[in-house]
Amino acid sequence: MYFILAPGLFKYVGARLVWGKLIAGLAVRVPGPSEKALRDLRRRIGATPLKQLFEVLAGPLAQPSTPGVCYRRWRTVAFDGCSNLAWLRRFTNWFGEVAYPKLMLMTLCETGRRGLLGACFGPVDQGEIAYARRLVGSPHRRHAGPGRPRLRQQ
Question: What does pTM read for this prediction?
Answer without folding.
Answer: 0.60
